[in-house]
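Hi support team,

I submitted a single chain yesterday and got back a structure, but I'm not sure I'm reading the token output correctly. Could someone confirm the output below corresponds to the sequence I sent? I've pasted both exactly as they appear in my results page.

Thanks,
R.
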Amino acid sequence: MTQALTAEDQSKDRFFASLAKIAESMVEEHGKDFATGALILAAQWVAENRIGGEKDPMH
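Hi R., thanks for writing in. Yes, this is the structure output for that exact sequence:
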């Protein structure tokens, strides 16, 4: 039996699809090393609240 996706799951799937397209474009234009580094850097920025969230008042 197939379970219907929630609105949140559908939204997340759209973001993953967008991210995959961006990653593919980066690999095609600049190679795997660039794409990997850029995605890791973006993830680090999110984790450190540099983008996409409230600034940590302690830092």
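A quick pointer for reading it: The chain has two helices and no strands. Let us know if anything else looks off.

Best,
Support desk
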